[in-house]
Amino acid sequence: MDQLRKYAPLWNKYRPAILKMMLAAASEPQQYELSSHEVLGHDTKKKGPVGFTLQISKRKAVNNIKNSEIAQDLLNTLQLSKRGSELIDKNDYSIVLDKQFKLHISQISPQNTESEIKTNE
Questions:
Q1: CA-based nearest residue to 84, from 17, 38, 39, 34
Q2: Tally of CB atoms within 10 A around 82
Q3: Per the CB 3.0–4.6 Å rule, which of 82, 91, 101, 102 could disulfide with 34?
């Protein structure tokens, strides 16, 4: 299985920093610059763009990441991490890797929480 997860070593290396940023994202969006050679070094076939947008809600991607192996591997890494799993279970996140290899992490507050819906009825 790990053989299929070619970006797993990358995300495992950065996992502590990503988890810290996810916690800090509760107050403001976070950014972290990855080194391009490190990211590109995992894509031996160079078959797809490495930039992605990953939106997570209730431990799952809510946007289509089917064609982004790097985004799938990040989500998998977070799901396998005890702390990461807790964070993505309780909060919604938007994680974007832009073309300059900068990782942007934002915590998304749900538009309508159940309590707001019930008080409006």
A1: 17
A2: 7
A3: 101
Q: 3-class SS at 53?
A: strand
**Residue 16 φ/ψ region, left for φ over 0, alpha for ψ in the -120 to 50 degree band, beta for the rest:** alpha
In a structure prediction context, what are the per-residue pLDDT tens digits for the chain, which is 121 residues long?
445 689 999 999 999 999 999 999 999 999 999 998 889 888 766 666 679 999 999 999 999 999 999 999 999 999 999 999 999 999 999 999 999 999 999 999 764 344 333 333 4
> What residue type is assigned to position 58 of the chain?
K
Q: Rounded to two decimals, what is the model's pTM? A: 0.84
